[in-house]
Amino acid sequence: MTELGATAGAGADETGPPLIAMHGITKVFGSLVANDHIDLAIRAGEIHALLGENGAGKSTLVKILYGLLEPTEGEIRWRGEPVRLAGPQEARSLGIGMVFQHFSLFENLTVAENIAAAMPPDLSLAEVAAKARDVSGQYGLSVDLDRPVWTLSAGERQRIEIIRCLLQDPRLIVLDEPTSVLTPQEADRLFVTLERLAASGCAILYISHRLEEVRRLCSSATILRAGRVVATIDPRAVSAREIAGLMVGTALHDVVAGRGAAEGAPRLVVRGLSLASEKAHGQALRDIELAVRAGEVLGIAGVAGNGQGELFAALSGERLAHGPDVVAIDGKPVGHLGVTERRRLGAAFVPEERLGHGAVPDHRLAENTLLSRHGTGGLVSRGFVLADATRALATRIIETFDVRKEGADPRARTLSGGNLQKFVVGREILREPGVLVVNQPTWGVDAGAAALIRQALVDLARSGSAVLIISQDLDELFEMADRIAVIHAGELSAPEATGDLTRETVGLLMTGAAAPKGTVHAH
Amino acid sequence: MSIVEAILLTIVTASTPLLIAALGELVTERSGVLNLGVEGMMAMGAACGFAGAILFDSTLLGVLCGILAGGLTAALFAFAVLGLAANQVASGLALTIFGLGLSGLIGAPFIGARRDPITHLHIPGLTDLPLVGRLFFGQDAFVYASLLLCLGVGWFLFRTRKGLLLRAVGENQTSAHSLGLPVLRVRLLAILFGGACAGLAGAYLSLVYTRFWSPGMTSGRGWIAVALVVFAAWRPDWALFGAYLFGAATVLQLHAQAAAIGIPSQALSALPYLATIVALVVLSLGRRRDTGAPGSLGAPFVPDR
Question: Which residue ranges does UniProt annotate as crossing the membrane (chain B) (predicted)?
Answer without folding.
Answer: 6-24, 36-55, 61-85, 92-111, 141-158, 188-207, 213-234, 241-261, 267-286
